[in-house]
């Protein structure tokens, strides 16, 4: 088997909260990169990274926007770390209906970090690029693909059978071939 087919690239941004000064350059850079046209405006409310801050205790935690969730969560928590208390939503990465975080203020669409997808690809994401403190570190590594489980294969098979019943075998095979060519 081609070894390239057996691995996938994982991109991550590692956060060192001890180095973060709360300057918010990452929020500004992210919003500028995602403005249309690129770098035409700066609005941290449109950023896909949010620096949770407590100026009194000099604590700053960068949080990246994750997936959208349609409903607010019902299991609220208060976090106590090193004797300090943080609100239940402080470190949550989701955009949800109960708060304004990671919601685009004009369109009200959810925002999610896309690792600064770009063509051609960037050497590293913009938030990392502008963080002069080294609090954000870009990491890219190859990991082995996991073999699909028997349960997942069973689900795929059932899905294919349903599609064939609805559209016919030839249409499904033609579409699968097309997807293969697009990859
Ligand atoms: S740019 Fe770096 S130091 Fe400044 S707020 Fe963002 S993560 Fe913290
Ligand atoms: S990686 Fe890109 S999209 Fe994600 S928070 Fe950083 S600047 Fe924004």
Structural class: alpha+beta
How many helices does DSSP assign?
4
If classified by CATH, what would the architecture of the largest domain be? 2-Layer Sandwich
From the 3D structure, determine the CATH topology of the largest domain: Alpha-Beta Plaits
**Relative helix content:** 25-40%
Q: Work out the count of structural domains.
A: 2
Radius of gyration: 21 Å
Strand order of the largest sheet: 1-6
DSSP strand content = 15-25%
Largest sheet: 2 strands, antiparallel
Characterization of the model:
With 183 residues, the protein is an alpha+beta fold. The protein has two domains: 3-144, 2-Layer Sandwich (Alpha-Beta Plaits); 150-182, no CATH class. 25% of the residues lie in helices and 20% in strands. The chain has a two-stranded antiparallel ribbon. It has a two-stranded antiparallel ribbon with strand order 2-3. A two-stranded antiparallel sheet has the order 4-5. Strand 4 and strand 5 form a beta hairpin. The protein is globular, with a radius of gyration of 21 Å. It starts with 6 loop residues before the first strand and ends with a helix. One iron/sulfur cluster is lined by residues 29-30, 33, 48-49, 64, 113-116, 125-127. One iron/sulfur cluster binds at residues 20-26, 51, 60, 62, 130-131, 133, 135-136.
